[in-house]
Amino acid sequence: MAELAEKFDVHANQITQWKTQLLQGATGVFLTPAEQRKPDGPSVKDMQAKIGQLALERDFLAGALGRIGDASAKK
Predict the structure, then answer these.
(1) Tens digit of each residue's pLDDT (9 = 90 or more) over 38-73
(2) What is the pLDDT of residues 14-40, one digit of tens each?
(3) Coil, strand or helix: which one is 67?
């Protein structure tokens, strides 16, 4: 590290920062611009989980409504 800093006349901390930045963003070099963009909304996995939750709630409420309807018809 000291050798590079001396050779290129930069501080060793600067080289360390550059290395950290490279390691964090190196995969981005090989991505297309479309791949680099992050999705704006929730992920597909999150949406599927929400759909499952809502379907379960709907089924529960439909069953409860059916039981309430049966009970009021008996009166």
Answers:
(1) 777 888 999 999 999 999 999 999 999 988 877 665
(2) 999 999 999 988 888 888 887 777 777
(3) helix
Whose tokens are 């791949």? That residue is: 35
Measured at the CA of 40, the angle between CA 35 and CA 41, to 5 degrees, comes to 120
Residue type, 3: E
pTM of this structure: 0.43
Cα distance between residue 31 and residue 53, in whole Å: 35
Token reading at 10 = 């930069």
Q: Is 74 helix (H, G, I), strand (E, B) or coil?
A: helix
